[in-house]
User: Which sequence fits this backbone?
């Protein structure tokens, strides 16, 4: 039995309102698959904004955010 046959067999056993939910879910999965194509890197998204973030900027932001975070076992 193929996966398609197994799915059809199980869907046929569901009441109509649950079959509708399965249809909605498959449409959701198709839409999500369509949007999971290649993405432009973030750097490309902000290239026209004149933003320049260095590795040091990121490290400093991390230190500021997590510096006072409580740690277990310390």
Assistant:
């Amino acid at each position: 039995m193929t996966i398609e046959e197994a799915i059809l067999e199980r869907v046929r056993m569901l009441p109509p309102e649950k079959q509708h939910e399965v249809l909605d879910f498959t449409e959701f999965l198709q839409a999500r698959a369509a949007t999971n194509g290649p993405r432009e890197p973030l750097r490309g998204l902000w290239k026209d904004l004149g933003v320049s973030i260095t590795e040091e900027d990121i490290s400093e932001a991390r230190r500021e955010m997590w510096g006072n975070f409580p740690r277990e076992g310390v």
User: Anything to note?
Assistant: The mean pLDDT is 86. The chain is about 60% helix and 0% strand. The two ends are 56 Å apart (CA to CA). Residues 3-35 form one domain.
